[in-house]
Design goal:
It contains no helices and 31 strands. By secondary structure, the chain is mainly β. The strands form seven sheets. Strands 1-29-26-31-24-23 form a six-stranded antiparallel sheet, with no helix packed on it. Strands 21, 22, 25, 27, 28 and 30 form a six-stranded mixed sheet that branches. The chain has a four-stranded antiparallel sheet with strand order 2-3-4-5, with no helix packed on it. A hairpin with a 7-residue loop joins strand 16 and strand 17. It starts with 8 loop residues before the first strand and ends with a strand. The protein binds beta-L-arabinofuranose. Beta-L-arabinofuranose binds next to strand 2 and strand 10.
Length: about 450
């Protein structure tokens, strides 16, 4: 076996390894984010989340949601996200008489050349208007008259008519005028939905003539994502089932949106990956969503890997795995005092492995692999393609080194195309891996 162990050498010492920060789940590492509404504008995905911040003296209530502004993020490949910065702060809103720190779940839609950003604050719903998806947004002088509630969602039907949905323990719906700033009908309560357990965060979309009303609902302990369908945007809706179960993490809220991009449907939602002990500091995620033949939604299992195709030339965060061996792998923060640095995979049993799906090798000639690793006793790592028994691509000796270092090794074969990557520990030792990158 030893002759397969390629010459490994430490090429650099990395005191601190900055995670790329924008890929896999959660999507954003350098700040908390929640309630993601994803929209397709100008050929890209734009995500309008709310923005949790830690409470501080004079800044919100400790132990509760604290939210003072909104950022918007965009991506063309669902792996690299651009933060366009703050698009609206509570102090920009003319009708908000105090700093409420309750800029909760927003939405944004495009109509007749303008982008309309809907946001809740202090129990009212406001609108801000822009010429571009990333702003600058100018808030209207007044909130929408006749609306008391949170979590606005605006749906524009194929005939151009717009509808506003929002929640206040129940879900309300009303038509919007063409100016997108005023109601065109009295809000009505959507019926036939579960009677018990908070219902909030409505998100409506249409597919093949079916109107889907999707929403978080507390059936047991925490929110799960459910849906109802109709042949009309105002209902009546028929309750259909569950899109995503309660989070095993115990995060009390979940809030989502559903979008089709380049022929694939996605569910955007949130959990508390960056704040395991406090579920009011959340982090947005995305996973693939699909439908049955009859239009019902297949239940989505949350993953760490998330969506998108990773570039083999970039740092691949294998701790965001798609599959994992039954034993021998744990995931931990690289630095628990600086969680924005992301996670590491700890392989600590013979044949323990992680699989990271959808890495694009293209048609290049690949020569070597770099692994950012640490190990108390050293160990040997196998890199394989496709699955745990797939083609052996490299065998890399990770030397004993408690500090992070980048180990470089030659490849046995040059992979091509989009492949799943498997990293396996050969011996009964202990290796920590931050990322892997091909050259
Ligand atoms: O983010 C604050 C609130 O928590 C949202 O408005 C709800 O949907 C829930 O996610």
């Amino acid at each position: 076996m030893k002759r397969f162990v390629c010459c490994a050498m430490i090429i650099a010492f990395y005191g601190i390894g900055m995670n790329d920060g924008f890929a896999d789940n959660p999507l954003i590492l350098d700040q908390f984010s929640a309630d993601p509404t994803a929209r397709v504008f100008e050929g890209k995905i734009y995500v309008y989340p709310s923005h949790d911040i830690p409470a501080a003296p004079g800044r919100g209530r400790a132990g509760w949601f604290v939210m003072e502004d909104y950022h918007v993020f965009s991506s063309g490949n669902l792996m690299d996200w651009t933060d366009h910065g703050v698009i609206l702060n509570q102090t920009d809103v003319p009708w908000l008489e105090r700093k409420s720190f309750d800029m909760w779940a927003p939405d944004c839609v495009f109509k007749d050349g303008k982008y309309y950003f809907y946001f809740p604050a202090s129990g009212r719903i406001g609108v801000a208007v822009a010429d571009k998806p990333e702003g600058p947004y100018k808030p209207a002088d007044k909130p929408i008259n006749g609306v008391r509630g949170i979590d606005p969602c605006v749906f524009i039907d194929n005939d151009g008519k717009a509808y506003l949905y929002y929640s206040m323990n129940r879900i309300f719906a009303a038509r919007l005028k063409d100016n997108m700033l005023e109601l065109d009908s009295e809000p009505l309560v959507i019926g036939n939905l579960p009677q018990k357990g908070l219902i909030e965060g409505p998100f409506v979309f249409e597919r093949n003539g079916i109107y889907y009303l999707t929403y978080p609902h507390v059936q047991n302990k925490t929110e799960r994502l459910e849906y109802a369908i109709s042949t009309s945007p105002m209902g009546p809706f028929e309750h259909k089932g569950v899109i995503m179960d309660e989070s095993p993490s115990g995060c009390w809220t979940n809030h989502h949106s559903i979008v089709e991009y380049k022929g694939q449907w996605y569910l955007f939602y949130h959990d508390k990956d960056l704040s395991p002990d406090f579920d009011k500091n959340r982090a947005i995620r995305a996973d693939y969503l699909s439908f049955n033949e009859d239009g019902t939604i297949r239940k989505v299992t949350p993953t760490l890997r998330g969506v998108g195709i990773a570039d083999a030339l970039k740092e691949i965060q294998i701790d965001r795995y798609s599959a994992v061996s039954p034993d021998g792998v744990t995931v931990d923060f690289v630095d628990s005092n600086q969680k924005q640095k992301g996670w590491k995979a700890v392989l600590a049993a013979q044949n323990a492995w992680v699989q990271y799906n959808n890495v694009d090798f293209g048609e290049h000639k690949w020569i070597s692999v770099r692994i950012k690793a640490a190990s108390q006793i050293g160990g040997v790592i196998e890199i394989r393609m496709d699955n745990v028994d797939g083609p052996l691509t490299a065998k890399v000796e990770i030397p004993e080194n408690r500090d992070w270092s980048v180990v470089k090794s030659g490849l046995l074969i040059s992979p091509s195309g989009v492949r799943n990557l498997v990293v396996k520990l050969d011996d009964a030792k202990n290796v920590e891996i931050d990322w892997i990158q091909f050259e």
